[in-house]
Amino acid sequence: MGEFLSQYGFLIVTMVQAGLLGLSLYFPLQAGQLSLASPGFYAVGGYVAAILLTGPAFSGLRDSLGNGMFPLTWLAAALICGVLGVIVGVPALRLRGIYLALATIAFVEILRVVSLNLAITGGAIGIFGIPQAFGFQDRWQYIWLFGPLLVLTLLFARQLERSRVGRALRAIREDELAADAMGVPPTRYKVLAFVIGAVLAGIVGAMSAPFLNTWNAKQGTFDASIAILAFVLIGGSRNLWGPVVGGALLTAVPELLRFLADWRLVINGLVLVVASLYLPQGIVGALQRLRRTPPPQRPPSVAEVKGGTS
Amino acid sequence: MEVSQIIQNLLNGLAIGSVYAIFALGYTLVFSILGIINFAHGAVFTLGAYFTYTLVVGQFENNGLLKGINLFPNGSPLSGNPWVFALATLIGAVLAGLVAVLIERLAFRPMRARGADPLLALVSSLGVALVIVNLIQLLVGAEIYNFPSDAYGQVQPALSFHVGERVVIIRTVQVIIFAVSLVMLAVLGYVIGRTKVGKALRAVAENPGTASLLGISVDRFILITFFLSGFLGGLAGTLVGTAFGVAGPYFGVTYGLKGLAVIVLGGLGSIPGAVVGGLVIGLAEAFVPSQYSAYKDAVAFALLFVILLVRPQGLLGRAQIQKV
Hints:
The complex is a heterodimer.
Chain A: H1 2-30, H2 38-54, H3 59-65, H4 69-92, H5 97-117, H6 143-162, H7 164-174, H8 176-181, H9 186-212, H10 222-235, H11 241-256, H12 264-278, H13 282-291, H14 302-307
Helix pairs in contact in A: 1-6, 1-9, 1-10, 1-11, 2-4, 2-5, 2-9, 4-9, 6-7, 7-9, 10-11, 10-13, 11-12, 11-13
Chain B: H1 3-34, H2 41-56, E1 59-60, E2 69-70, H3 82-113, H4 118-140, E3 145-146, E4 159-163, E5 166-170, H5 172-194, H6 196-206, H7 208-213, H8 218-244, E6 246-247, H9 251-266, H10 271-286, H11 296-310
Antiparallel strand pairs in B: 1-2, 3-6, 4-5
Helix pairs in contact in B: 1-5, 1-8, 1-9, 1-10, 2-3, 2-4, 2-8, 2-9, 3-4, 3-8, 5-6, 5-8, 6-8, 9-10, 9-11
């Protein structure tokens, strides 16, 4: 067991972490909002934690709080990402479909270039020597942080879906104008879902900074945006297990293909192509379909494709 | 800023902006027909540069499966002949176009046939980009190759003139980039605006269903669109490689993203919009003061963010009609 954990512990934690990032994109998607901003908030959360844990200005705080410093970094990351989420979300969520996706890509890229050039983020080198959370000796021990966060997030997501807010989000996803006409204010709910995703991504970032030991501008890139989108779409975008399954599987694929050596990244790309071609509902959607006959699928009309998935 | 500096920036901006424009045209053509963004376009851009490199230099000495291959044991036929280079650029762009056609057939058409969520096309085209970029790495290694930037060195003269005390210098390659882009735009404008093929393309873009009822083979015109898109992308790849003298597997990533900014700025699916967007972003980058040059890559995205908030349909785009 010890050997297994030391060999695969890092991978297992990374799989859970990927599932959490998938969920952070899943929340706005529940309201029909394709936001690719998660890596941006993830990066900000990580920087907040890295600065609090290594910055000379906070050394007094670290001395007096001890291990209490780590929960404080999560809280700080959640708060900052929440506020940033509102600031970005309120104007950006006026956009729909592909336009929102592109605006959030722009947000991630701007953050990346800025963090590459600021002194406080360590410039191109980034921040390193971030202390291990709670004095963990092994990387697998981070499962004690990411695991409970995943369980809490799933419970929260399930309660949200069953609540009034969840129904409002679904109504907006299906038809925003109709929802508006029925007295569901779309903007308020869209921003709420966006901010929930932002806060989650920020906390995951704050937990990941000690996990990875170092934090730099490579953590929040366009590639990450698309990778997280792939987690959700390949896993299944209509069920909260989809992002978790997709994140875990797509993180594991390159490792499982390790015997292919240099070819594994090529095969990884092919896996994405084949999965998106043959599992249009995602893996979880396909599994659900095996259990019951699905409602008839209406192919999207051209107008919808052009106008974006609103 | 001095007048000479302004003129210099203006000319630099026009040259790089015109490459952005023809690169972004490839995106916008596919978007106007299919309503999707082909994330593999940046990889096709990279491929174009590598095809040309193979045709004119033909040596992969560093790493990868093709290590040690030398297509031209008697020395490169390039040897200072700009016409050979121009021909290789053209063939490289055609090959990139054919790859784009292949991408359409393998990654997009099966999805369209099934009426799948257009979002999945994003993931599928990203998968294709991963395959292409990593195949390049496998074959020729991850190293950056020195692109023959002196290809047009023999073409005289690189322009330079005096403005007051200062000298404004325009490199030959910049003139060529600008000229090629203008020619491409004129040809494309003619094909789309005046020919039967262009009329059919516009009909498909407007409404594929109606177009196919009118006897237009939609699938064939989608293939043509992808070919044009890949051709323009590959051409831009070679031009940028020549201008900066380098090419590497991740060469296309930044351009892929800036291309998105360009087409949104101009208006998604708008051909004149892609041109205007490319020039605006090229000029804006050229005028970034040198002490802030580290932030240059953020300029395109800042512009994109601003335009989305102020005028989401882009500078020249048509307003989206709200569905009821």
